[in-house]
Amino acid sequence: MNLTVFSKRDLEEILGIIHDSTLCRSEPELMSLMVRVRDIVEADRSICGIGDKSGRMKILNESFPADWMQRYQDEVLSVSDPVVNYVMTFFKTCLWKDAVEVFPGKPYTELMGKASEHGLKYGVAGGVNGKTQNFGSVFSFSSVSDRFGGRQKKILDVVVPHLHQAIMRIASPGISKEKEIEPVVLSVREVEVLRWIKEGKTNWEISMILNISERTVKFHVHNITIKLNAVNKSHAIAIAMERGLLE
Amino acid sequence: MNLTVFSKRDLEEILGIIHDSTLCRSEPELMSLMVRVRDIVEADRSICGIGDKSGRMKILNESFPADWMQRYQDEVLSVSDPVVNYVMTFFKTCLWKDAVEVFPGKPYTELMGKASEHGLKYGVAGGVNGKTQNFGSVFSFSSVSDRFGGRQKKILDVVVPHLHQAIMRIASPGISKEKEIEPVVLSVREVEVLRWIKEGKTNWEISMILNISERTVKFHVHNITIKLNAVNKSHAIAIAMERGLLE
DNA sequence: TGTGAGCCTGTACTAAAGGACAGGTGTTAA
DNA sequence: TTAACACCTGTCCTTTAGTACAGGCTCACA
Protein backbone atom coordinates (compact mmCIF):
# COMPACT_ATOMS: atom_id res chain seq x y z
CA MET A 1 0.00 0.00 0.00
CA ASN A 2 1.45 3.32 -1.14
CA LEU A 3 0.94 5.88 1.60
CA THR A 4 3.08 8.68 0.16
CA VAL A 5 -0.02 10.47 -1.08
CA PHE A 6 -0.82 11.46 2.49
CA SER A 7 0.61 14.52 4.23
CA LYS A 8 2.42 14.20 7.52
CA ARG A 9 -0.61 15.67 9.34
CA ASP A 10 -2.90 13.13 7.69
CA LEU A 11 -0.65 10.28 8.67
CA GLU A 12 -0.49 11.49 12.25
CA GLU A 13 -4.26 11.70 12.49
CA ILE A 14 -4.78 8.30 10.85
CA LEU A 15 -2.29 6.68 13.20
CA GLY A 16 -3.95 8.44 16.12
CA ILE A 17 -7.35 7.09 15.13
CA ILE A 18 -5.96 3.59 14.81
CA HIS A 19 -4.28 3.80 18.17
CA ASP A 20 -7.39 5.07 19.91
CA SER A 21 -9.40 2.31 18.23
CA THR A 22 -7.40 -0.20 20.22
CA LEU A 23 -8.44 1.53 23.43
CA CYS A 24 -12.08 2.02 22.45
CA ARG A 25 -14.47 0.18 24.77
CA SER A 26 -17.75 2.08 24.63
CA GLU A 27 -20.25 3.43 22.12
CA PRO A 28 -19.52 7.12 22.83
CA GLU A 29 -15.82 6.46 22.32
CA LEU A 30 -16.59 4.78 19.01
CA MET A 31 -18.78 7.71 18.00
CA SER A 32 -15.96 10.15 18.63
CA LEU A 33 -13.69 7.99 16.48
CA MET A 34 -16.31 8.09 13.74
CA VAL A 35 -16.31 11.89 13.96
CA ARG A 36 -12.56 11.97 13.50
CA VAL A 37 -12.70 9.65 10.50
CA ARG A 38 -15.62 11.64 9.12
CA ASP A 39 -13.53 14.80 9.33
CA ILE A 40 -10.45 13.33 7.67
CA VAL A 41 -12.47 11.95 4.74
CA GLU A 42 -14.24 15.33 4.49
CA ALA A 43 -17.72 13.89 4.98
CA ASP A 44 -20.77 15.51 6.63
CA ARG A 45 -22.36 12.48 8.18
CA SER A 46 -21.31 9.06 9.38
CA ILE A 47 -22.84 5.80 10.55
CA CYS A 48 -21.70 2.28 11.30
CA GLY A 49 -23.25 -1.09 11.92
CA ILE A 50 -22.54 -4.74 12.61
CA GLY A 51 -24.47 -7.85 11.62
CA ASP A 52 -25.39 -9.56 8.35
CA LYS A 53 -27.19 -8.69 5.15
CA SER A 54 -30.46 -10.27 6.17
CA GLY A 55 -31.53 -7.40 8.41
CA ARG A 56 -29.98 -8.63 11.65
CA MET A 57 -27.86 -5.52 11.83
CA LYS A 58 -27.15 -3.45 14.88
CA ILE A 59 -26.72 0.16 13.81
CA LEU A 60 -24.75 2.81 15.66
CA ASN A 61 -25.72 6.15 14.19
CA GLU A 62 -23.40 9.10 14.60
CA SER A 63 -24.98 11.75 12.40
CA PHE A 64 -27.31 10.28 9.75
CA PRO A 65 -30.75 11.99 9.66
CA ALA A 66 -33.11 10.49 12.22
CA ASP A 67 -36.11 10.43 9.87
CA TRP A 68 -34.11 8.48 7.29
CA MET A 69 -33.01 5.97 9.88
CA GLN A 70 -36.63 5.52 10.95
CA ARG A 71 -37.70 4.90 7.37
CA TYR A 72 -34.71 2.64 6.79
CA GLN A 73 -35.74 0.48 9.71
CA ASP A 74 -39.50 0.54 9.06
CA GLU A 75 -39.20 -0.45 5.42
CA VAL A 76 -36.31 -2.86 6.07
CA LEU A 77 -34.29 -1.08 3.43
CA SER A 78 -30.98 -2.68 4.40
CA VAL A 79 -31.70 -5.67 2.16
CA SER A 80 -31.89 -3.43 -0.90
CA ASP A 81 -29.06 -1.14 0.10
CA PRO A 82 -26.34 -1.54 -2.55
CA VAL A 83 -23.68 -0.10 -0.25
CA VAL A 84 -24.43 -2.50 2.60
CA ASN A 85 -24.62 -5.30 0.06
CA TYR A 86 -21.33 -4.38 -1.51
CA VAL A 87 -19.47 -4.09 1.75
CA MET A 88 -21.02 -7.20 3.33
CA THR A 89 -20.37 -9.25 0.21
CA PHE A 90 -16.89 -8.17 -0.76
CA PHE A 91 -15.64 -6.67 2.51
CA LYS A 92 -13.99 -3.93 0.52
CA THR A 93 -14.07 -0.17 0.59
CA CYS A 94 -16.21 1.47 -2.07
CA LEU A 95 -17.71 4.73 -3.21
CA TRP A 96 -21.49 4.61 -3.04
CA LYS A 97 -21.63 5.04 -6.79
CA ASP A 98 -19.37 1.99 -7.24
CA ALA A 99 -21.87 -0.09 -5.30
CA VAL A 100 -24.75 1.05 -7.50
CA GLU A 101 -22.77 0.06 -10.56
CA VAL A 102 -22.18 -3.43 -9.22
CA PHE A 103 -25.77 -3.87 -8.02
CA PRO A 104 -27.76 -2.22 -10.81
CA GLY A 105 -31.14 -3.75 -9.92
CA LYS A 106 -34.30 -1.66 -9.56
CA PRO A 107 -34.72 -1.98 -5.76
CA TYR A 108 -31.14 -0.80 -5.33
CA THR A 109 -31.47 2.32 -7.48
CA GLU A 110 -34.81 3.06 -5.82
CA LEU A 111 -33.20 2.94 -2.41
CA MET A 112 -30.50 5.33 -3.49
CA GLY A 113 -33.22 7.66 -4.77
CA LYS A 114 -34.98 7.58 -1.41
CA ALA A 115 -31.70 8.29 0.35
CA SER A 116 -31.15 11.31 -1.86
CA GLU A 117 -34.46 12.73 -0.60
CA HIS A 118 -32.86 12.81 2.84
CA GLY A 119 -29.70 14.55 1.64
CA LEU A 120 -27.68 11.34 1.35
CA LYS A 121 -26.40 11.38 -2.19
CA TYR A 122 -22.66 10.78 -2.21
CA GLY A 123 -20.64 8.63 0.09
CA VAL A 124 -17.86 6.20 0.76
CA ALA A 125 -18.03 3.04 2.84
CA GLY A 126 -15.87 0.22 4.10
CA GLY A 127 -16.21 -2.93 6.16
CA VAL A 128 -14.67 -6.13 7.38
CA ASN A 129 -16.03 -9.65 7.62
CA GLY A 130 -16.08 -11.38 10.98
CA LYS A 131 -14.71 -14.77 9.86
CA THR A 132 -18.17 -16.35 9.79
CA GLN A 133 -20.17 -16.34 6.57
CA ASN A 134 -21.84 -13.00 5.86
CA PHE A 135 -21.35 -11.48 9.24
CA GLY A 136 -19.35 -8.26 9.45
CA SER A 137 -19.31 -4.52 9.97
CA VAL A 138 -19.99 -1.49 7.78
CA PHE A 139 -18.72 2.06 8.13
CA SER A 140 -20.35 4.63 5.87
CA PHE A 141 -19.65 8.33 5.34
CA SER A 142 -21.84 10.71 3.38
CA SER A 143 -21.74 14.17 1.97
CA VAL A 144 -24.08 16.45 -0.03
CA SER A 145 -21.41 17.05 -2.67
CA ASP A 146 -19.22 14.47 -4.36
CA ARG A 147 -15.83 14.89 -2.76
CA PHE A 148 -14.99 11.20 -2.53
CA GLY A 149 -12.36 9.31 -4.48
CA GLY A 150 -9.16 7.31 -4.16
CA ARG A 151 -7.87 9.30 -1.19
CA GLN A 152 -10.98 8.58 0.90
CA LYS A 153 -11.01 4.92 -0.06
CA LYS A 154 -7.38 4.55 0.92
CA ILE A 155 -8.01 6.11 4.33
CA LEU A 156 -10.86 3.71 4.97
CA ASP A 157 -8.77 0.78 3.76
CA VAL A 158 -6.29 1.59 6.48
CA VAL A 159 -8.62 2.62 9.29
CA VAL A 160 -11.63 0.34 8.94
CA PRO A 161 -10.05 -2.94 10.16
CA HIS A 162 -9.33 -1.25 13.47
CA LEU A 163 -12.76 0.32 13.75
CA HIS A 164 -14.08 -3.18 13.10
CA GLN A 165 -12.18 -4.54 16.10
CA ALA A 166 -13.66 -1.75 18.18
CA ILE A 167 -17.27 -2.28 17.10
CA MET A 168 -16.83 -6.01 17.58
CA ARG A 169 -15.88 -5.47 21.19
CA ILE A 170 -18.78 -3.11 21.77
CA ALA A 171 -21.69 -4.45 19.79
CA SER A 172 -21.06 -8.01 18.67
CA PRO A 173 -22.05 -9.95 21.81
CA GLY A 174 -25.72 -9.11 21.43
CA ILE A 175 -25.69 -9.94 17.73
CA SER A 176 -23.57 -13.03 17.44
CA LYS A 177 -24.81 -15.00 20.44
CA GLU A 178 -28.37 -15.55 19.32
CA LYS A 179 -27.03 -16.55 15.92
CA GLU A 180 -24.43 -19.18 16.69
CA ILE A 181 -26.23 -21.19 19.33
CA GLU A 182 -29.28 -21.87 17.12
CA PRO A 183 -29.45 -25.67 17.21
CA VAL A 184 -30.18 -27.12 13.79
CA VAL A 185 -32.21 -30.27 13.41
CA LEU A 186 -31.89 -31.89 10.01
CA SER A 187 -34.30 -34.64 9.02
CA VAL A 188 -33.04 -38.13 8.21
CA ARG A 189 -33.49 -37.55 4.51
CA GLU A 190 -31.70 -34.20 4.63
CA VAL A 191 -28.66 -35.75 6.26
CA GLU A 192 -28.66 -38.48 3.63
CA VAL A 193 -28.74 -35.91 0.84
CA LEU A 194 -26.04 -33.86 2.51
CA ARG A 195 -23.74 -36.85 2.80
CA TRP A 196 -23.98 -37.47 -0.92
CA ILE A 197 -23.42 -33.83 -1.74
CA LYS A 198 -20.29 -34.11 0.35
CA GLU A 199 -19.20 -36.93 -1.94
CA GLY A 200 -19.57 -34.60 -4.89
CA LYS A 201 -22.71 -36.19 -6.28
CA THR A 202 -25.00 -34.07 -8.45
CA ASN A 203 -28.71 -33.74 -7.70
CA TRP A 204 -29.50 -36.16 -10.47
CA GLU A 205 -27.05 -38.74 -9.15
CA ILE A 206 -28.48 -38.43 -5.66
CA SER A 207 -31.96 -38.88 -7.05
CA MET A 208 -30.83 -42.14 -8.66
CA ILE A 209 -29.16 -43.33 -5.47
CA LEU A 210 -32.14 -42.56 -3.25
CA ASN A 211 -34.75 -43.59 -5.84
CA ILE A 212 -36.49 -40.24 -5.78
CA SER A 213 -36.90 -37.55 -8.40
CA GLU A 214 -34.28 -34.89 -9.05
CA ARG A 215 -36.90 -32.32 -8.09
CA THR A 216 -37.19 -33.88 -4.66
CA VAL A 217 -33.44 -33.70 -4.17
CA LYS A 218 -33.59 -30.00 -4.99
CA PHE A 219 -36.41 -29.70 -2.50
CA HIS A 220 -34.26 -31.21 0.25
CA VAL A 221 -31.23 -29.17 -0.73
CA HIS A 222 -33.33 -26.04 -0.52
CA ASN A 223 -34.57 -26.91 2.95
CA ILE A 224 -31.04 -27.74 4.06
CA THR A 225 -29.67 -24.40 2.95
CA ILE A 226 -32.47 -22.62 4.78
CA LYS A 227 -32.00 -24.60 7.99
CA LEU A 228 -28.24 -24.10 7.95
CA ASN A 229 -28.53 -20.46 6.96
CA ALA A 230 -26.37 -21.25 3.93
CA VAL A 231 -26.42 -19.66 0.52
CA ASN A 232 -25.62 -22.76 -1.56
CA LYS A 233 -24.45 -26.35 -1.44
CA SER A 234 -20.78 -25.67 -0.81
CA HIS A 235 -21.67 -23.36 2.04
CA ALA A 236 -24.08 -25.90 3.47
CA ILE A 237 -21.44 -28.61 3.39
CA ALA A 238 -18.92 -26.39 5.15
CA ILE A 239 -21.40 -25.46 7.87
CA ALA A 240 -22.59 -29.02 8.36
CA MET A 241 -19.04 -30.35 8.60
CA GLU A 242 -17.98 -27.65 11.02
CA ARG A 243 -20.91 -28.40 13.29
CA GLY A 244 -20.39 -32.14 12.99
CA LEU A 245 -23.85 -32.76 11.59
CA LEU A 246 -22.68 -35.56 9.32
CA GLU A 247 -21.01 -37.91 11.81
CA MET B 1 -36.75 -56.39 1.75
CA ASN B 2 -39.21 -59.12 0.81
CA LEU B 3 -37.39 -62.47 0.63
CA THR B 4 -40.41 -64.72 0.28
CA VAL B 5 -39.77 -65.07 -3.46
CA PHE B 6 -36.79 -67.29 -2.70
CA SER B 7 -37.02 -71.03 -2.17
CA LYS B 8 -35.63 -72.63 0.95
CA ARG B 9 -32.67 -73.98 -1.03
CA ASP B 10 -31.94 -70.53 -2.44
CA LEU B 11 -32.01 -69.00 1.01
CA GLU B 12 -29.68 -71.66 2.36
CA GLU B 13 -27.16 -71.06 -0.41
CA ILE B 14 -27.37 -67.27 -0.08
CA LEU B 15 -26.83 -67.47 3.64
CA GLY B 16 -23.95 -69.87 3.08
CA ILE B 17 -22.27 -67.50 0.67
CA ILE B 18 -22.65 -64.62 3.10
CA HIS B 19 -21.23 -66.67 5.92
CA ASP B 20 -18.24 -67.81 3.90
CA SER B 21 -17.66 -64.21 2.82
CA THR B 22 -16.88 -63.34 6.40
CA LEU B 23 -14.19 -66.04 6.44
CA CYS B 24 -12.76 -65.19 3.03
CA ARG B 25 -9.14 -64.07 3.24
CA SER B 26 -7.58 -64.89 -0.14
CA GLU B 27 -8.18 -64.42 -3.82
CA PRO B 28 -8.90 -68.11 -4.57
CA GLU B 29 -11.46 -68.16 -1.77
CA LEU B 30 -13.09 -65.06 -3.24
CA MET B 31 -13.11 -66.67 -6.68
CA SER B 32 -14.92 -69.71 -5.37
CA LEU B 33 -17.47 -67.43 -3.77
CA MET B 34 -17.92 -65.72 -7.14
CA VAL B 35 -18.57 -69.12 -8.71
CA ARG B 36 -21.28 -69.86 -6.18
CA VAL B 37 -22.95 -66.49 -6.75
CA ARG B 38 -22.58 -66.97 -10.50
CA ASP B 39 -24.42 -70.25 -10.23
CA ILE B 40 -27.26 -68.98 -8.14
CA VAL B 41 -27.90 -66.03 -10.47
CA GLU B 42 -27.72 -68.44 -13.40
CA ALA B 43 -24.86 -66.64 -15.11
CA ASP B 44 -22.06 -68.05 -17.28
CA ARG B 45 -19.24 -65.73 -16.35
CA SER B 46 -18.28 -63.50 -13.43
CA ILE B 47 -15.76 -60.83 -12.55
CA CYS B 48 -15.15 -58.36 -9.77
CA GLY B 49 -13.00 -55.33 -9.13
CA ILE B 50 -12.18 -52.62 -6.65
CA GLY B 51 -11.05 -49.05 -7.23
CA ASP B 52 -12.55 -45.93 -8.75
CA LYS B 53 -14.04 -44.86 -12.04
CA SER B 54 -10.88 -43.18 -13.27
CA GLY B 55 -9.17 -46.43 -14.22
CA ARG B 56 -7.41 -47.13 -10.94
CA MET B 57 -9.25 -50.38 -10.64
CA LYS B 58 -7.86 -53.68 -9.54
CA ILE B 59 -9.68 -56.46 -11.35
CA LEU B 60 -10.09 -60.03 -10.14
CA ASN B 61 -11.30 -62.09 -13.06
CA GLU B 62 -13.05 -65.35 -12.43
CA SER B 63 -14.29 -66.33 -15.89
CA PHE B 64 -14.50 -63.37 -18.26
CA PRO B 65 -12.77 -64.03 -21.63
CA ALA B 66 -9.04 -63.30 -21.44
CA ASP B 67 -8.91 -61.55 -24.83
CA TRP B 68 -11.69 -59.19 -23.77
CA MET B 69 -9.90 -58.38 -20.53
CA GLN B 70 -6.75 -57.62 -22.51
CA ARG B 71 -8.62 -55.28 -24.81
CA TYR B 72 -10.46 -53.74 -21.85
CA GLN B 73 -7.19 -52.90 -20.20
CA ASP B 74 -5.32 -51.79 -23.34
CA GLU B 75 -8.05 -49.41 -24.50
CA VAL B 76 -8.85 -48.26 -20.93
CA LEU B 77 -12.46 -49.14 -21.54
CA SER B 78 -13.49 -48.93 -17.90
CA VAL B 79 -14.08 -45.18 -18.23
CA SER B 80 -16.73 -45.75 -20.90
CA ASP B 81 -18.23 -48.82 -19.29
CA PRO B 82 -21.84 -47.96 -18.41
CA VAL B 83 -22.08 -50.81 -15.92
CA VAL B 84 -18.97 -49.78 -14.00
CA ASN B 85 -20.18 -46.20 -14.18
CA TYR B 86 -23.60 -47.07 -12.91
CA VAL B 87 -22.39 -49.17 -10.02
CA MET B 88 -19.59 -46.79 -9.01
CA THR B 89 -21.89 -43.79 -9.18
CA PHE B 90 -25.04 -45.08 -7.54
CA PHE B 91 -23.70 -48.09 -5.66
CA LYS B 92 -26.82 -49.98 -6.63
CA THR B 93 -27.49 -53.28 -8.31
CA CYS B 94 -28.48 -53.05 -11.97
CA LEU B 95 -29.08 -55.07 -15.08
CA TRP B 96 -26.56 -54.19 -17.77
CA LYS B 97 -29.38 -52.90 -19.93
CA ASP B 98 -30.49 -50.57 -17.12
CA ALA B 99 -27.02 -49.05 -17.09
CA VAL B 100 -27.11 -48.43 -20.84
CA GLU B 101 -30.44 -46.67 -20.45
CA VAL B 102 -29.08 -44.35 -17.80
CA PHE B 103 -25.84 -43.67 -19.70
CA PRO B 104 -27.02 -43.46 -23.29
CA GLY B 105 -23.89 -41.74 -24.67
CA LYS B 106 -22.12 -42.98 -27.78
CA PRO B 107 -18.93 -44.26 -26.06
CA TYR B 108 -21.09 -46.30 -23.70
CA THR B 109 -23.15 -47.99 -26.38
CA GLU B 110 -19.98 -48.58 -28.38
CA LEU B 111 -18.39 -50.35 -25.44
CA MET B 112 -21.41 -52.58 -25.03
CA GLY B 113 -21.13 -53.40 -28.72
CA LYS B 114 -17.51 -54.39 -28.33
CA ALA B 115 -18.38 -56.54 -25.31
CA SER B 116 -21.04 -58.34 -27.36
CA GLU B 117 -18.32 -59.36 -29.81
CA HIS B 118 -16.76 -61.30 -26.95
CA GLY B 119 -20.01 -62.99 -25.97
CA LEU B 120 -20.79 -60.55 -23.20
CA LYS B 121 -24.26 -59.32 -24.00
CA TYR B 122 -26.50 -59.67 -20.98
CA GLY B 123 -25.58 -59.24 -17.36
CA VAL B 124 -26.30 -58.06 -13.89
CA ALA B 125 -23.99 -56.16 -11.57
CA GLY B 126 -23.79 -54.73 -8.10
CA GLY B 127 -21.37 -52.83 -5.93
CA VAL B 128 -20.75 -50.92 -2.75
CA ASN B 129 -18.98 -47.66 -2.09
CA GLY B 130 -16.12 -47.60 0.34
CA LYS B 131 -17.12 -44.48 2.27
CA THR B 132 -14.66 -42.31 0.37
CA GLN B 133 -15.78 -40.46 -2.74
CA ASN B 134 -15.95 -42.66 -5.83
CA PHE B 135 -14.02 -45.57 -4.44
CA GLY B 136 -15.79 -48.91 -4.26
CA SER B 137 -16.23 -52.40 -5.63
CA VAL B 138 -18.09 -53.92 -8.57
CA PHE B 139 -19.36 -57.46 -9.05
CA SER B 140 -20.58 -58.33 -12.50
CA PHE B 141 -22.20 -61.48 -13.89
CA SER B 142 -22.79 -62.21 -17.55
CA SER B 143 -24.66 -64.66 -19.75
CA VAL B 144 -25.19 -65.22 -23.47
CA SER B 145 -28.96 -65.19 -23.07
CA ASP B 146 -31.06 -62.72 -21.11
CA ARG B 147 -32.06 -64.54 -17.99
CA PHE B 148 -31.63 -61.64 -15.59
CA GLY B 149 -34.35 -59.74 -13.77
CA GLY B 150 -35.69 -58.89 -10.36
CA ARG B 151 -34.68 -62.20 -8.83
CA GLN B 152 -31.01 -61.76 -9.75
CA LYS B 153 -30.94 -58.14 -8.63
CA LYS B 154 -32.40 -59.10 -5.29
CA ILE B 155 -29.78 -61.78 -4.76
CA LEU B 156 -26.99 -59.33 -5.48
CA ASP B 157 -28.60 -56.71 -3.21
CA VAL B 158 -28.28 -59.20 -0.39
CA VAL B 159 -24.94 -60.77 -1.19
CA VAL B 160 -22.82 -57.95 -2.58
CA PRO B 161 -22.22 -55.99 0.65
CA HIS B 162 -20.54 -59.07 2.09
CA LEU B 163 -18.49 -59.75 -1.02
CA HIS B 164 -17.43 -56.14 -0.77
CA GLN B 165 -16.09 -56.68 2.72
CA ALA B 166 -14.17 -59.69 1.42
CA ILE B 167 -12.62 -57.95 -1.57
CA MET B 168 -11.74 -54.98 0.63
CA ARG B 169 -9.75 -57.26 2.90
CA ILE B 170 -7.99 -58.92 0.00
CA ALA B 171 -7.36 -56.22 -2.57
CA SER B 172 -7.86 -52.79 -1.06
CA PRO B 173 -4.46 -52.26 0.62
CA GLY B 174 -2.63 -51.97 -2.67
CA ILE B 175 -5.25 -49.69 -4.13
CA SER B 176 -6.15 -47.37 -1.31
CA LYS B 177 -2.71 -46.69 0.06
CA GLU B 178 -1.26 -44.89 -2.90
CA LYS B 179 -4.44 -42.88 -3.09
CA GLU B 180 -4.91 -41.57 0.41
CA ILE B 181 -1.37 -40.60 1.25
CA GLU B 182 -0.96 -38.39 -1.81
CA PRO B 183 0.05 -35.11 -0.22
CA VAL B 184 -1.71 -32.17 -1.83
CA VAL B 185 -0.01 -28.82 -2.13
CA LEU B 186 -2.38 -25.99 -2.86
CA SER B 187 -1.00 -22.63 -3.91
CA VAL B 188 -1.62 -19.52 -1.83
CA ARG B 189 -4.21 -18.29 -4.29
CA GLU B 190 -5.99 -21.61 -4.38
CA VAL B 191 -6.37 -21.66 -0.61
CA GLU B 192 -7.73 -18.12 -0.72
CA VAL B 193 -10.31 -19.09 -3.31
CA LEU B 194 -11.22 -22.20 -1.38
CA ARG B 195 -11.79 -20.24 1.80
CA TRP B 196 -14.27 -17.99 0.05
CA ILE B 197 -16.04 -20.92 -1.56
CA LYS B 198 -16.40 -22.27 1.95
CA GLU B 199 -18.18 -19.04 2.88
CA GLY B 200 -20.63 -19.69 0.07
CA LYS B 201 -19.36 -17.01 -2.25
CA THR B 202 -20.00 -17.39 -5.98
CA ASN B 203 -17.17 -17.19 -8.50
CA TRP B 204 -18.21 -13.67 -9.40
CA GLU B 205 -18.20 -12.56 -5.78
CA ILE B 206 -14.77 -14.05 -5.24
CA SER B 207 -13.51 -12.28 -8.33
CA MET B 208 -14.70 -8.98 -6.84
CA ILE B 209 -13.12 -9.75 -3.47
CA LEU B 210 -9.75 -10.73 -4.91
CA ASN B 211 -9.81 -8.12 -7.69
CA ILE B 212 -9.40 -10.68 -10.45
CA SER B 213 -11.70 -11.76 -13.26
CA GLU B 214 -14.40 -14.34 -12.80
CA ARG B 215 -12.60 -16.42 -15.42
CA THR B 216 -9.52 -16.56 -13.23
CA VAL B 217 -11.56 -17.73 -10.29
CA LYS B 218 -12.91 -20.54 -12.46
CA PHE B 219 -9.33 -21.30 -13.44
CA HIS B 220 -8.30 -21.69 -9.81
CA VAL B 221 -11.40 -23.69 -8.94
CA HIS B 222 -10.62 -26.04 -11.78
CA ASN B 223 -7.06 -26.55 -10.59
CA ILE B 224 -8.26 -27.10 -7.05
CA THR B 225 -10.70 -29.81 -8.07
CA ILE B 226 -7.96 -31.56 -10.04
CA LYS B 227 -5.44 -31.37 -7.20
CA LEU B 228 -7.95 -32.60 -4.64
CA ASN B 229 -9.32 -35.26 -6.97
CA ALA B 230 -12.74 -33.71 -6.54
CA VAL B 231 -15.61 -33.53 -8.99
CA ASN B 232 -16.98 -30.12 -8.04
CA LYS B 233 -16.85 -27.30 -5.50
CA SER B 234 -18.83 -29.00 -2.78
CA HIS B 235 -16.66 -32.06 -3.04
CA ALA B 236 -13.50 -29.97 -2.98
CA ILE B 237 -14.64 -28.15 0.14
CA ALA B 238 -15.41 -31.41 1.90
CA ILE B 239 -12.03 -32.90 1.00
CA ALA B 240 -10.13 -29.76 1.94
CA MET B 241 -11.89 -29.50 5.29
CA GLU B 242 -11.36 -33.15 6.07
CA ARG B 243 -7.65 -32.87 5.37
CA GLY B 244 -7.39 -29.59 7.28
CA LEU B 245 -6.10 -27.67 4.28
CA LEU B 246 -7.91 -24.49 5.27
CA GLU B 247 -6.59 -23.94 8.77
C1' DT C 1 18.53 -18.44 -21.53
C1' DG C 2 15.31 -21.70 -21.36
C1' DT C 3 11.86 -23.97 -18.55
C1' DG C 4 8.39 -24.64 -15.37
C1' DA C 5 5.16 -22.83 -12.01
C1' DG C 6 1.95 -19.70 -10.45
C1' DC C 7 -0.97 -16.51 -11.85
C1' DC C 8 -4.03 -14.16 -15.01
C1' DT C 9 -7.62 -13.56 -19.00
C1' DG C 10 -10.78 -14.10 -22.97
C1' DT C 11 -14.85 -16.36 -25.83
C1' DA C 12 -18.27 -19.72 -26.29
C1' DC C 13 -20.74 -23.24 -25.00
C1' DT C 14 -23.25 -27.09 -22.10
C1' DA C 15 -24.60 -28.88 -17.71
C1' DA C 16 -26.14 -28.13 -13.27
C1' DA C 17 -28.09 -25.48 -9.58
C1' DG C 18 -31.44 -22.73 -7.72
C1' DG C 19 -35.89 -20.29 -7.24
C1' DA C 20 -41.00 -19.43 -8.04
C1' DC C 21 -45.29 -21.46 -8.10
C1' DA C 22 -48.37 -25.21 -7.29
C1' DG C 23 -49.52 -29.33 -5.73
C1' DG C 24 -49.50 -34.36 -3.79
C1' DT C 25 -49.26 -38.41 0.27
C1' DG C 26 -48.79 -40.57 4.84
C1' DT C 27 -47.89 -40.39 9.76
C1' DT C 28 -48.45 -38.54 14.17
C1' DA C 29 -49.82 -36.01 18.11
C1' DA C 30 -52.80 -32.67 20.34
C1' DT D 1 -60.23 -34.65 13.34
C1' DT D 2 -57.42 -31.19 12.31
C1' DA D 3 -52.88 -29.52 12.21
C1' DA D 4 -48.03 -30.17 11.76
C1' DC D 5 -44.41 -32.39 9.60
C1' DA D 6 -41.60 -35.20 6.65
C1' DC D 7 -41.56 -36.49 2.33
C1' DC D 8 -42.48 -36.33 -2.48
C1' DT D 9 -43.30 -34.31 -7.48
C1' DG D 10 -44.17 -31.38 -11.45
C1' DT D 11 -43.19 -27.16 -14.86
C1' DC D 12 -40.87 -23.10 -16.11
C1' DC D 13 -37.30 -20.06 -15.86
C1' DT D 14 -32.81 -17.63 -14.52
C1' DT D 15 -28.36 -17.83 -12.70
C1' DT D 16 -23.98 -20.30 -11.85
C1' DA D 17 -20.80 -23.73 -12.56
C1' DG D 18 -17.96 -26.14 -15.35
C1' DT D 19 -15.28 -27.20 -19.68
C1' DA D 20 -12.84 -26.60 -24.09
C1' DC D 21 -9.75 -23.98 -26.55
C1' DA D 22 -6.37 -20.39 -26.72
C1' DG D 23 -3.45 -17.23 -24.98
C1' DG D 24 -0.96 -13.75 -21.74
C1' DC D 25 2.78 -12.22 -17.89
C1' DT D 26 6.41 -12.77 -14.15
C1' DC D 27 9.62 -14.86 -11.29
C1' DA D 28 12.91 -18.34 -9.72
C1' DC D 29 16.13 -21.68 -10.78
C1' DA D 30 19.17 -24.60 -13.35
Relevant terms:
alpha+beta, homodimer, 247 residues, DNA-binding, 5-stranded antiparallel β-sheet
Largest sheet of chain A: 5 strands, antiparallel
Query: Helix count of chain A?
Result: 11
Amount of helix of chain A: 55-70%
What string gives the helices and strands of chain A in order?
HHEEHHEHHEEHHHHH
What is the distance, rounded to the nearest whole angstrom, between the alpha carbons of the first and last residues of chain A?
45 Å
Q: Widest sheet of chain A: strand order?
A: 2-1-5-4-3
Strand-residue proportion of chain A: 5-15%
Structure classification of chain A: alpha+beta
Rg from Cα of chain A:
21 Å
| Number of beta strands of chain A | 5
Q: What is the average of the pLDDT values of chain A?
A: 88
Topology overview:
Two copies of one chain form a homodimer.
Chain A: H1 8-23, H2 27-40, E1 45-51, E2 58-61, H3 66-74, H4 82-90, E3 94-95, H5 96-102, H6 106-117, E4 122-129, E5 136-143, H7 150-181, H8 188-198, H9 203-210, H10 214-227, H11 233-242
Antiparallel strand pairs in A: 1-2, 1-5, 3-4, 4-5
Helix pairs in contact in A: 1-2, 1-7, 2-7, 4-5, 8-10, 9-10
The first copy, chain A, binds a DNA duplex (30 and 30 nucleotides) through helix 8 and helix 10.
